[in-house]
Amino acid sequence: MVVISVARFTEIQTFIRNYNGLFVNCNLELEAKFPEYSPDTLGSIVAKEVIQRVKSNHYNLTAKAGSMVEQFKTIAKQTSTAHDILQKMAIEWRVPSTVLYKRNAHDILQKMAIEWRVPSTVLCRIFLTKFYPDALKLEINEMLRMPDLISDSLLALNVSYCLYSEIMDGPITDLVRRFIGVEYEVRLKKMAREAGMVFYDEGDLRRTGYDKTPDLKMAVPFMYRGQVINWIESKASFGDMDSHKRYVKDQLSSYGNRFGPGIVIYWFGYVESIAECPENGNYVIVTDGFPGKDEMEFLTFNLPVLEEEEQKKHGDGS
User: Fold this and answer.
1) Domain locations in the chain?
2) What is the arithmetic mean of pLDDT over 200-218?
3) Is 35 helix (H, G, I), strand (E, B) or coil?
4) pLDDT one-digit tens code per residue, 101-146
5) What is the arithmetic mean of pLDDT over 150-156?
6) Would you call 217 helix, strand, or coil by DSSP?
7) Does residue 95 or residue 149 have the better pLDDT?
8) Coil, strand or helix: which one is 64?
9) Pairing outcome for strands 199-201 and 216-224
């Protein structure tokens, strides 16, 4: 089980909040300092902390975007056309251009992001909006997804460097998280079928007109530790108090009101206090994995034997 005490969770939070550097390095140092927890668990905790940090810093970042653009232009003048010169030299010598980046013109935006302690792609998005004030939001998103569309070559280089080195935000990170979420939903369905559950998935429920739907809605409820279970929700993340309360408010409470009690699975663990969270009411049960066979009880139906089946049975036996 991956259930973290409040005290231990506070230690992890403090480490993350005091860390100043790249998030990929923060993850590595966390894994070394807290080896008892998996990289998935620690990485998910970092991601939750980063989301809160971005929300709290977004206004200040946007307000400072103009000065960041000026700072970038100043550094760009100092480096002159060094990035183009090095690229031409790399082509001539047939080596990767990154081998020749001696003057660090490629990581100006990344260093700004470290200073602001936010994901570099978040800063890039705000920066591009200020650098190209007439560009539409869709165009900014396309520039972030495909930096080759950016007309300024040094800026394109910087955005590209952030895009491929950032693990907490951006198109690549979003895609990876989406795949992980789907993977655990598929795993949940497989385990439910193997356990003998009869259920409807999100697609089944939406076709019948439901808007907010759990990952699994039991066609036949089952007992889990003495509690009737009507639905299961999969969360491929770590469950902290803030995000759990938000999930209860936005999703889980509606499932409970509509279908009755159910289970939310935080596959990467949770902080122990959310299991007894008052917001859970009588309809949300928190776990960190699929229920064990010895924890579940299923209904058995003693259906009446039809007369034709009874006659066939006796006929076969004669």
Assistant:
1) 3-169, 173-295
2) 87
3) coil
4) 444 578 899 999 999 999 999 999 999 999 999 999 999 999 999 9
5) 91
6) strand
7) 149
8) coil
9) antiparallel
Let me know if 135 is exposed, middle or buried by CB neighbors in 10 A (0-12, 13-18, 19+). middle
Distance from C-alpha of 119 to C-alpha of 167, rounded to nearest angstrom: 8
d(CA 246, CA 239): 11
User: Distance between CA 221 and CA 202 in Å, rounded?
Assistant: 17
pLDDT higher at 29 or 301: 29
Taking a C-beta distance cutoff of 8 angstroms, is the pair 199, 192 a contact?
A: yes
Asked if 126 and 65 count as a contact pair (C-beta separation under 8 A), the reply is: yes
Give long-range contacts, CB 8 A cutoff, 24+ apart: 286-289.
286/239, 286/244, 287/263, 288/1, 288/2, 288/3, 289/1, 289/265
Task: Kindly give, in sequence order, each residue whose CB lies less than 8 Å from that of residue 75, ignoring residues fewer than 6 positions away.
Answer: 105, 108
The three-state secondary structure class of 297 is: strand
Burial class, 30, CB count within 10 angstroms (exposed 0-12 / middle 13-18 / buried 19+): buried
Encode 186-210: b = buried (16+ Cβ within 10 Å), e = exposed: eebbeebeeeebebbbeeebeeeeb
Q: Which is higher by pLDDT, 243 or 87? A: 243
d(CA 78, CA 76): 5
Best CATH choice for the domain 173-295 from the list 2.30.30, 2.60.120, 3.40.1350, 1.10.150: 3.40.1350
pLDDT of residue 102: 41
Neighbours of 45 (CB within 10 A): 26
Residue 124 makes CB contacts below 8 A (sequence gap 6+) with 109, 144, 158, 159, 162, 163
pTM of the model: 0.83
